[in-house]
């Protein structure tokens, strides 16, 4: 089932958009898909290994190309954090932003791996599909965004105290009159709910759409072999696929950057007093 010529286009796409057979849950929201979890953990280890490798080779003298590039990335993220986070210290926020950016970037980059190459290995384990892009799984992006939400609540309580946080929930933004407590609470709950929704669905939607476009373009190239316009379909679809791959590099990096920046913004908002 790894080859697109053995399936209809609809079956081929559905197969590659199916999750690995082993999962925890009923297949709806809150399902733990083993392919998303395993790839995410693997890429997390790769990311930490990258940090260790760079730190191990760092020098106080003239930096090499590797160290110079990483210093540019670190300075860029550090400056972005300072530009948004205007509070006392950002010793935690900047490293967290760097970690989020690298991890999401690595997960997004899995979209560049040809799905049929991945299928050659995964089909020996299971007949089900295998989603190699963790961020095209809404459960993964929601898990990331809910973690950020938990951090915002933690910092809000740490900065304002538990009593101050509760007071803000009931007395902001419409005032402390008991008649408007319910409206304040409803307003703040909507804000707390909308943050992880927008944070997660933006990343999921872009990566899922990118994965779908790749599958459609490669299916066009594969199916052109059975049509009369073989060379036209083959070269046009392959050209479009490579053009989309180049453009998708920007999307992959941009979505990681946007997710990182929203993480910084939400943590910064948690420090603000209303």
Question: What fraction of residues sit in β-strands?
Answer: under 5%
Determine the fraction of residues in helical runs and give it as a percent range: over 70%
Which regions are unreliable across 5 or more consecutive residues at pLDDT < 50?
1-5
Tell how many strands the DSSP assignment holds.
2
Helical region count?
A: 8
Mean pLDDT: 81
What do you see in this structure?
The chain is mostly helical. The protein has one domain. Helix content is 71%, strand content 1%. The protein is built from 8 helices and 2 strands. The protein has a two-stranded antiparallel ribbon with strand order 1-2. Helix 1 crosses helix 7 (181-223), helix 4 (93-109) packs antiparallel against helix 8 and helix 7 packs antiparallel against helix 8 (230-270). The radius of gyration is 23 Å and the shape is globular. It starts with 8 loop residues before the first helix and ends with a helix. Residues 1-5 have low confidence and may be disordered.
Give a short summary of the structure:
With 274 residues, the protein is mainly alpha-helical. It is built from 8 helices and 2 strands. The radius of gyration is 23 Å and the shape is globular.
